[in-house]
Amino acid sequence: MIVTTTNDLPGYRIVRHIGMTRGITVRSRNAISDWVGGMQSIFGGKVGVYVKLAEMARQEAYDELVEHAKAQGANAIIAMRYDANEIMDGITEVLAYGTAVVVEPV
């Protein structure tokens, strides 16, 4: 699966637009990560435990996006984006979305 944030794919021709495709995950923090994150924040700088949690959520949403596009018959996704919203304190939704297309080399 080719995935790009651009609206076109150099070297490829879009032969079919399938439409919107998306992947979503909902993740929560836990007491241990909050404690470790709190301790890390005392010293300033990167809060690794939250970086890891955010990266895991993005990867899950991305994987779901790719699977959804494959199920629609796509071999590429253009205009891919991420969005995140806090549903409630400590619970975050991460959405990966884009346009599913079928491409062929030029």
Secondary-structure blueprint of this entry?
Layout lengths: L1 E2 L8 E17 L2 H13 L4 H24 L4 E13 L2 E15 L1
Parallel strand pairs: 1-3
Antiparallel strand pairs: 2-4, 3-4
Protein name: UPF0145 protein IFJ75_07310
Organism: Brevundimonas goettingensis
Family: Belongs to the UPF0145 family.
Walk me through this protein's architecture.
By secondary structure, the chain is an alpha+beta fold. The protein has a single domain (2-105), classed as Hypothetical protein apc22750. Chain B (Translation Initiation Factor IF3, 2-Layer Sandwich), CATH 3.30.110. Helix content is 35%, strand content 44%. It is built from 2 helices and 4 strands. It has helices at 31-43, 48-71, and strands at 2-3, 12-28, 76-88, 91-105. A 4-stranded mixed beta sheet has the order 1-3-4-2. Strand 3 (76-88) and strand 4 (91-105) form a beta hairpin. The radius of gyration is 17 Å and the shape is elongated. The protein starts with a strand and ends with a strand. The model has no long low-confidence stretch (mean pLDDT 86).
